[in-house]
Design brief:
The protein has 373 residues and is an alpha+beta fold. 29% of the residues lie in helices and 17% in strands. It has helices at residues 2-15, 32-40, 60-67, 162-169, 176-180, 265-275, 298-302, 317-341, 348-372, and strands at residues 95-97, 108-111, 116-119, 125-130, 140-148, 183-185, 194-197, 208-213, 217-223, 238-245, 251-261.
Length: 373
């Protein structure tokens, strides 16, 4: 209010200069009656030329609303650049925990020793979040950001593969940020407290899913791509960074959990703990040696023939590129399986045909992309 009074005095002092009236001392404060009495002593002032603004004092409720806004549209912005990866409990003792006591009955597993979750695609897994809510300023936001764990890949953001993103793109009402996020909330699309962040047009804008919660809680998540998707994660190890934030995006806590999205979580957790040289518990006790079963290759061999596609017209260059890339990814995965597993004794000709088809597809894809530019 004092600023309003001072500005009003300055304006009228310039318009109606006087020499005989002693101005009030604004350093000691002045109310509206004193100012009006003073201004009326000036020549030419009628009293209707100034309006005094009376502002009510700010109470505790106003202060609380500044910390915890009523407007639900105030959402922390998407982080720019690779997020920090160091665990941080902070003053609020933030923790993210995965209960693995009953995971034998579920389709996901968690290794305490590796700090890694193993889960199949499109399977919900639950994470419990705790912090000192009695000290936290207002409602909390839990952000989950998927990143590559390898330092050589740390500058690249994790995106969904072409095939899965194209399938989701046909769902109406979903933003591009929602489509490209590999990790989603298990809540239905459009839930008011769930936000999918990230700008696809800015490579430095990281994808994440943000959930608003008034108190410590458990949240369920789901991966929409596998770790083996060649045009997405592409077998690179990933991690989930969980952060505790306020509505301004200020980070108060952070915890990092490894993740692997696979079809056989039990097999992969068993293998990874063996690779790390860690002792197994009873749940992971080695089984007795058995003779390896012969893999039937008849079904595979029947699908190894080279198919000549007819000349067909496709509406849309982007659709044509995505279709060819899906075929390219499937053939690359098949080639990797043949080379790694040696499914049959006569795979040389099949691999040769795959290499030839892969090269031709890449050539046509590059030509279409060049025309698009």
């Amino acid at each position: 209010m004092l600023d309003n009074v001072c500005s009003a005095y300055t304006m009228f002092k310039c318009e109606f200069p006087d020499e005989g009236v002693v101005p009030p001392n604004f350093d000691e404060g002045v109310d509206s009656d004193v100012l009006i009495t003073y201004l009326r002593e000036m020549d030419g002032f009628t009293g209707s030329q100034i309006e005094i603004c009376h502002e009510p004092p700010m109470d505790v409720n106003n202060l609380i609303q500044l910390v915890n806004p009523v407007d639900t549209n105030l959402v922390p912005t998407s982080p720019q650049g690779p997020p920090a990866r160091t665990n941080l409990e902070g003053v609020f003792k933030f923790k993210a925990e995965i209960d693995s006591t009953h995971t034998r009955k579920k389709k996901y597993l968690y290794s305490h020793r590796l700090n890694r979750i193993y889960v199949d695609v499109n399977v919900n897994f639950s994470v419990g979040f705790t912090w000192d809510a009695s000290l936290f300023p207002g409602e909390a936001y839990i952000r989950a950001t998927t990143v590559f764990s390898d330092v050589t890949q740390a500058e690249k953001r994790v995106e969904r593969c072409y095939q899965h993103s194209h399938e989701t793109a046909n769902s109406p009402g979903k933003s591009r940020a929602t489509i490209m996020n590999v990790l989603h909330s298990a809540r239905e699309h459009g839930s008011p407290d769930v936000h999918y962040c990230g700008n696809p047009e800015q490579p430095d804008s990281w994808y994440s899913v943000l959930v608003r919660t008034p108190r410590p809680t458990q949240l369920a998540y789901v991966f929409l791509c596998k770790s083996s998707c060649s045009s997405g994660i592409n077998r690179r190890p990933i991690e989930i960074i969980f952060t505790l934030e306020d509505f301004k995006g200020e980070i108060y806590g952070r915890q990092v959990v490894g993740a692997r999205v696979c079809s056989c979580p039990r097999r992969d957790i068993d293998r990874d703990e063996c690779v790390e040289g860690l002792p197994k518990n009873k749940r992971l006790a080695p089984q007795q040696e058995t003779r390896p079963k012969k893999v039937k290759t008849e079904a595979v061999e029947k699908d190894d023939g080279v198919i000549k596609l007819p000349a067909i017209g496709v509406v849309g260059r982007r659709t044509a590129i995505l279709g060819l890339e899906v075929m390219l990814n499937m053939m690359e995965e098949k080639r990797e399986g043949l080379v790694a597993n040696r499914l049959s004794t006569d795979t040389t000709s099949v691999i040769y045909n795959l290499d030839k088809s892969i090269a031709n597809l890449k050539k046509h894809i590059n030509q279409l992309k060049g025309q698009q530019q």
